[in-house]
């Protein structure tokens, strides 16, 4: 069965290469040299930030286990990370709109570097602090950088369609190529050079420090809401009003939470799904295959986003349906394919079918990221972009914490069924969003901004 892994990886690599090399003028967006310089600078920083994140991922659980912690204690550490992202991350991430997005990106680097340093300690309390810092950093990674990019893009007067080019390239590199290279580099540090399980975290800290230096030397500051007298509670209220008053923003938040919740659940489920009887599977190689599938998705997304005639709200309905169907495979194979009961051995036939389905899901993930970024840039008001994006992550983090806490309480087929239902619900909500996409924004958000402006004038008087 080892040949099967190489065949899947080779087929995906060939398709990605063919797509990238066969781009016609229809698939390309004509841009300016100033934009290309700006885009390349952002892609460099984003790639360094993602390298700092991807290097840590495969070794977090392994490091905790080498320190002698059991499954329950490690589970608590993971829950602390997602809980921190939900509580503290929402506050810190929201401050980016008021205190500056560049400053928030630098804070991400510092926070994550400190989190990496804590990994040197075998003390549970120190590791818990590291997870809390990591949770805060994750919120900043998925809000501050995108918020800075969107604001800076329009501040410099670049065409709106060019933004989708940066999004698709960022996902192609940061969530694809960099993930694969980080996995190989981490494997080199730990297994080949025998530097120990903490070495990837040290390497991550170095990449984050380099990225921070680039940010400090080449980025300019931008803000969401520059008003001086608006406190955090008022900012939260404004974001809540924007979500509640504009159905498009509310739908976007629900779609994002449903998809990302299913995606993070999949991360915990794919290993036991492919090796239910402790079959020997090459985890690192499969992870690299998933990332290659994600690169395929982002390459497809680049072509879709380059076409003015094709709306992102339309094709994402199909993407969600395909992703929902792909996660039904573990359930179907459980009923239709006879699985061996012998422990160990290589991957089963059912496992091979599931792997193909999982690669399809990862391709959908690759399409999802640049597409959701494009929709967020269209619908979320600039004044509260980071705040609203972090609001979107609250239900996601609650969901992941519940899944982590109850991961052993339900059969794996039930968990996959739940994810498939969520993804189908995302498709239904996406259909509704497509139907109302051209409707003008409601007045509540505008009225709130006008009221704030009046309050500022009164305070000044």
TrEMBL record:
Membrane-protein topology: Multi-pass membrane protein
Pfam families (UniProt xref): MFS_5
Molecular functions per Gene Ontology: molybdate ion transmembrane transporter activity
Keyword Transcription regulation assigned: no
One cellular component term from this protein's GO annotations in UniProt: plasma membrane
Compartment(s) where it occurs, according to its Swiss-Prot or TrEMBL record: Cell membrane
Transmembrane segment boundaries: 6-22, 43-62, 74-96, 128-150, 170-189, 201-219, 285-306, 318-339, 345-369, 390-406, 412-429
CDD domains linked to this entry: MFS_MFSD5_like
GO biological process, one term: monoatomic ion transport
Keyword hit for Manganese: no
Record keywords, A-Z: Cell membrane, Ion transport, Membrane, Transmembrane, Transmembrane helix, Transport
Annotated family: Belongs to the major facilitator superfamily. Phosphate:H(+) symporter (TC 2.A.1.9) family.
Function per UniProt: Mediates high-affinity intracellular uptake of the rare oligo-element molybdenum.
UniProt protein name: Molybdate-anion transporter
Organism listed in the record: Sesamum indicum (Oriental sesame)
Protein encoded by which gene: LOC105166764
């Amino acid at each position: 069965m080892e040949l099967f892994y190489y065949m899947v990886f080779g087929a995906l690599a060939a398709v990605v290469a063919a797509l990238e090399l066969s781009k016609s003028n229809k698939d390309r967006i004509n841009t300016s040299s100033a934009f290309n310089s700006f885009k390349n600078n952002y892609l460099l920083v984003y790639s360094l930030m993602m390298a700092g994140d991807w290097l840590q991922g495969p070794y977090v659980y392994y490091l905790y286990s080498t320190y002698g912690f059991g499954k329950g204690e490690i589970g608590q550490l993971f829950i602390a990370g997602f809980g921190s992202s939900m509580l503290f991350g929402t506050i810190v991430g929201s401050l980016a709109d008021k205190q500056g997005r560049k400053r928030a990106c630098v804070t991400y680097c510092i926070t994550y570097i400190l989190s990496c340093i804590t990994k040197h300690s075998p003390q549970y309390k120190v590791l818990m602090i590291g997870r809390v810092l990591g949770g805060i950093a994750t919120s900043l990674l998925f809000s501050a950088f995108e918020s800075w990019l969107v604001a800076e893009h329009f501040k410099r007067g670049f065409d709106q369609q060019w933004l989708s080019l940066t999004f698709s390239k960022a996902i192609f590199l940061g969530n694809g190529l960099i993930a694969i290279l980080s996995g190989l580099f981490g494997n080199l540090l730990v297994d080949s050079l025998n530097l120990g399980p903490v070495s990837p975290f040290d390497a991550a800290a170095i990449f984050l420090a380099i990225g921070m230096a680039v940010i400090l030397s080449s980025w300019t500051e931008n803000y969401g809401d520059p008003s001086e007298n608006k406190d955090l509670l008022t900012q939260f209220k404004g974001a809540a009003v924007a979500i509640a008053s504009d159905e498009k923003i509310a739908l976007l938040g629900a779609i994002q939470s449903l998809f990302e919740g299913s995606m993070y659940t999949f991360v915990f489920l794919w290993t036991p799904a492919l090796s239910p009887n402790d079959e020997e599977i090459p985890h690192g190689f499969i992870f690299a295959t998933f990332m290659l599938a994600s690169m395929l998705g982002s390459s497809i997304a680049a072509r879709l986003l380059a076409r003015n005639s094709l709306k992102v709200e339309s094709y994402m309905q199909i993407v969600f349906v395909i992703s929902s169907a792909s996660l039904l495979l573990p359930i179907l194979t459980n009923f239709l394919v006879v699985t061996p009961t012998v422990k160990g051995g290589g991957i089963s036939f059912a496992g091979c079918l599931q792997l193909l389905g999982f690669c399809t899901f990862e391709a959908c993930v690759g399409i999802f990221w640049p597409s959701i970024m494009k929709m967020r840039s269209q619908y979320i008001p600039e004044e509260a972009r980071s705040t609203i994006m972090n609001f979107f992550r609250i239900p996601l983090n609650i969901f992941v914490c519940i899944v982590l806490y109850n991961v052993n309480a339900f059969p794996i087929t039930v968990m996959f069924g739940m994810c498939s239902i969520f993804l189908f619900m995302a498709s239904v909500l996406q259909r509704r969003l497509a139907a109302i996409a051209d409707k003008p924004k409601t007045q509540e958000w505008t009225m709130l901004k006008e009221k704030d402006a009046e309050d500022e004038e009164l305070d000044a008087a």
